Amino acid sequence: MFKVTPLPRGPLRRALLTATAAASLAAAPTAAHADSAPQTRPLTPPAPLAPLSPSASSPFAPHLAPTQRAADHLTVTVRGTGGRADGRFELECHPGGGSHPDVAGACGSLDRGARWGEDPFAPVSPDSVCTMMYGGAATAHVTGTWAGRPVDAAFDRSNGCEMARWDRLVPLLPDLR
Predict the structure, then answer these.
(1) CA–CA separation, 19 vs 4, rounded Å?
(2) Distances (CA, A) of 42 to 31, 45, 67, 147
(3) Hey, what domains does the chain have and what are their CATH numbers?
C-alpha cells in the first residue's frame, strides 16, 4: 500500500507542479496525421577524424583534426547464378566508382534504402515465418564499409524471406527475378 503525501504549499508547490508539467510535455508523443507518411532521410555518416597527434604548442595536448569523408566501399561476391552475374565486384560510393556493373544504381538504391535504426544488410530474423519457395542456388557475400559501419553479410535465395532480402538490394545484387 502506498501512502500519498500532499504537496507543500507556496513557491515549492508551484516549482514542483511546473517541473512535473514540463516533464509530462517532454515525454508526450508527437502528433501524427493519418494521411502523412513517415519521413526518412538517407544515412550520412559523420566525417572521420584524423589520428591523434601532438599539438605544436604542447607535446602532451593532442588535438583532433577533421579529414575528408571516407568513401563507402563494398566488395560483392556472387556465385551460382548460372554464370550470367557471377563474379567479384568492387563498389565505391560518395564518390561512385569500382568494377560493379551499375555503380550509380547500386549506390542510389543503398542511399534510398537507408533508414535510421535499420541495417540494409541485416539477416532475416530467426523467428520469421517464410514461404517455402526456392529461388535458386545463387549466393552473395558483401563485405566492406557502409555509412561508417563494417559490413559482412551473406545472402542466398533459399526461401521467400531470403529472396525478398536479396531483391531489396537489387541492383547491388543481381536481379534474378
Answers:
(1) 19
(2) 23, 10, 21, 10
(3) 72-168 (3.30.350.10)
Q: Cα–Cα distance between 131 and 72 in angstroms, integer? A: 34
3-state secondary structure string across 58-115: CCCCEECCECCCCCEEEEEEEECCCCCCCEEEEEEECCCECCCCCHHHHHHHHHHHCC
**pLDDT tens-place string over residues 103-132:** 999 998 888 777 777 788 999 999 999 999
Sign of the torsion angle spanned by Cα atoms 171, 173, 176, 177? negative
The set of cell numbers assigned to 60 is: 602532451
* Residue 92 to residues 31, 64, 144, 160, Cα–Cα distance (Å): 39, 26, 10, 29
Please state, rounded to an integer, the average pLDDT across all residues of the chain: 74
